[in-house]
Design goal:
The protein is α/β, with parallel strands linked by helices. The chain contains 16 helices and 13 strands. It has a 7-stranded mixed beta sheet. It is elongated and about 110 Å long. About 25% of the residues are buried. Bound molecules: adenosine-5'-triphosphate and magnesium ion. Keywords: ATP-binding, Hydrolase, Magnesium, Membrane, Nucleotide-binding, Transmembrane, Transmembrane helix.
């Protein structure tokens, strides 16, 4: 038998003993437990080349659970459900999903770069000596995890392995937490639970473009070290532009769901000054998307906000155009373009952790180039009118149809008309339950034909108008 086999045998014997001890120690009085453990440890040190690290649930402050303990609990929840025989179940995310973790006095094995290690959970029941309101002399349960590994791997385990455990555990925690949608009421954030069903899978857009966006987001979320190495703040700006109803807001919700981020929906018109803007930003947490919708309506892009009187003079010729948002208190509102630019690249926007900044607009051509240059808005994404590829996704979502003889007609009509995915989706909505795909497709084709006619007429009218004004000018000359 080789030395390494001996080690392995000794390791599993010791592991087995520790496992048995973890199971049965609860039947011994606490003092005796401590005595046996102490004695066992000193005997073990002679023969046993293993190191043990204990992570207590509460350290120092009795009311704050240790971050390391929580991260380990989460990390172990991923492999303990496969190995441990006794599990604890807990509800997370507003009682919507169940998380399993190993019960007290269980042991699970883990492997890291080919090295085997053992995690054991346990608890000590001790009498509380702290004078409290009513529970003096009550018993307190002190839980812990113990990690056992061969001393040969000390540096690897204490360094990279534990870092890996904490990182993974925190990531699981982020995934399981209840996410929030924050909105600013003046210069204060208030929040509600964020539960939007939008997903990239159900978003109607070209698959290549969609994949590019997903890859970009995932790369960003995993690039902490890269951003640190090139000396850039860990944030990324997205500009989403396109006509109303093409899925800009839906995409933001899908981004938040993909990365498990919170959303801060910033209403610029309710912010009174650049300083308030700064304060709001400092209060945002890591792993979040800061959204400013309809940026063209929120700010006068010459650098000063639009004054109320001026706004009333603005003539809206395009029926699709949104009127500028009303200021709640226009006299006191002084957020400027330079304030907003500072908001994006100011030092304080980099405070701790990753952030996405997303602007949306219906009129990209109206925006100041300074606002959307690369580095501020790193990625410009156009959400266009519905094309056939986008329609196929909607048909799959709404009608559960992958193909149909009418699809060729729809494809031809979509090439000849400008219709938004929101309009297409509305026509595909079942009018009765259960829905009837044939009827929905017929309704959509009729609507497309009607829109096509209307758009043709409108184009002809515009041509005639243009011709008329040209004729007038010619006549004048
Ligand atoms: N690309 C899309 N894929 C799937 N559904 C879409 C898409 N675009 C729009 N919809 C549907 O239309 C509705 C309106 O879309 P959304 O609010 O995202 O549009 P928007 O681009 O933000 O419009 P606005 O410019 O007016 O804010 C959504 O609830 C969604 O169901
Ligand atoms: Mg929107």
């Amino acid at each position: 038998m080789t030395a390494s086999e001996n080690f392995a045998n000794l390791g599993s014997m010791v592991g087995g003993f520790m496992f048995m001890w973890a199971m049965f120690k609860q039947f011994f009085p606490p003092q005796l437990q401590e005595y046996i453990e102490k004695y066992f440890q000193s005997v073990l040190r002679v023969f046993h080349p293993y190191i043990q690290i204990t992570f207590n649930e509460f350290t120092g402050d009795r009311f704050m659970r240790s971050e390391a303990y929580i991260a380990i609990e989460n990390y172990l929840s991923s492999n303990s459900s496969a190995q441990a025989k006794r599990l604890k179940a807990d509800m997370v995310k507003n009682n919507q999903s169940l998380v399993l973790s190993m019960d007290d006095h269980e042991e699970v094995a883990d492997e890291y770069m080919g090295i085997k290690l053992w995690w054991a959970s346990g608890k000590n029941v001790i009498k509380s000596q702290t004078p409290g309101f009513y529970n003096y002399n009550a018993t307190v349960e002190k839980r812990f995890y113990k990690l056992n590994f061969h001393k040969r791997y000390r540096d690897l385990i204490i360094g990279p392995y534990l870092q890996h455990v904490l990182k993974e555990g925190k990531a699981i925690n982020v995934k399981n937490r209840q996410r929030k949608l924050y909105t600013n009421n003046g210069s204060y954030w208030s929040h509600v639970v964020f539960e939007h069903p939008a997903r990239f899978q159900t978003l109607a857009m070209e698959s290549e473009k969609k994949k590019e966006i997903i890859d970009d987001l995932i790369t960003f979320s995993q690039s902490e070290d890269f951003y640190a190495s090139i000396g850039r703040a860990w944030k990324r700006g997205y500009l989403l532009y396109g006509p109303p109803g093409t899925g800009k807001s839906t995409m933001i919700a899908a981004m938040a769901n993909l990365l498990h981020y919170d959303i801060y929906d910033l209403e610029l018109t309710a912010v009174k000054s650049n300083n308030e803007l700064k304060r709001l930003l400092i209060e945002t947490s890591s792993k979040s998307i800061i959204v400013i919708e309809d940026i063209d309506c929120s700010l006068d892009l010459t650098g000063q906000r639009r004054k109320k009187e001026k706004r009333e003079e603005v003539e809206i010729t395009d029926p699709d155009e949104k009127p500028p948002k009303e200021d709640k208190d226009s006299k006191a509102s002084q957020v400027t373009l330079s304030g907003l630019l500072n908001f994006i690249d100011g030092l304080w926007s980099a405070c701790g952790g990753e952030r996405l900044i997303v602007f949306t607009t219906n009129y990209v051509e109206k925006l100041d180039p300074a606002l959307i240059r690369k580095g501020r808005m790193d990625k410009h994404i156009e959400l266009p009118y519905c094309n056939f590829e986008a329609f196929k996704i909607l048909a799959k979502n709404y009608l559960k149809l992958e193909s149909h003889p009418s699809f060729s007609t729809v494809s031809r009509l979509l090439e000849e008309t400008n219709i938004t995915p929101a309009d297409v989706a509305e026509h595909l909505m079942p009018k009765t339950l259960p829905g009837d795909a044939e009827t929905s497709l017929k309704v959509l084709i009729q609507a497309l034909e009607q829109v096509k006619e209307e758009q043709k007429l409108k184009a002809a009218e515009e041509d005639a108008k243009e011709k008329k004004s040209l004729d007038k000018e010619e006549a004048k000359e």
